[in-house]
Amino acid sequence: MVRGFDRGYKRLPKQKEEVPPSEPSRRVNDEIPGDLEVLFVGDEQTKAQIMFAREALMFAQKAGLDLVEIAPNARPPVCKMVDYESMLRAEREKSRQMQQKLLKNTKKVSALKELRFTPTIQQHDFDVKLKRAREWLEVRELRFFLLSSLQTNFHQLRTTELG
Predict the structure, then answer these.
(1) Distance of CA 152 to the CA centre of its chain
(2) Could you tell me which of 133, 152, 153 has the C-alpha nearest to residue 142?
(3) Does the keyword Protein biosynthesis apply (predicted)?
(4) What are the start and end residues of each CATH 3.10.20.80 domain in the chain?
(5) The whole model's pTM is what?
(6) Which CATH class is domain 29-104?
């Protein structure tokens, strides 16, 4: 028996995380009940009018478009005559542009980079650090401090004298 597990503690059941739908669930064409009265919004030439969904669907099919329920919670529900695929494409593009705009507007926090050089640095090590510093400058989102450490400890002095 493993110690600590026999104390009568009950494990809580895992709670299922609800995943929000990626796209809003809208009723389209035949998914809208035919006997439902809706506020039908057609093209720019026609005024919005209340009619049964089956009549609105006939208007949309004659125009070669889809009948989409825009506001299901309104009384009566609002249905619009649009090309559903192009509407989804436009919404995805709009949300993508909003995300890009949010990313641009967020304040960029510059990371602080540090380079240390000692008086006994070898040429290859110096070249590698210099190359790294140039890469950081090209990104332009980073700033760094170049430190020249003139303090040497006894061990460094001793190794330079011996070597």
Answers:
(1) 49
(2) 133
(3) yes
(4) 29-104
(5) 0.45
(6) alpha beta
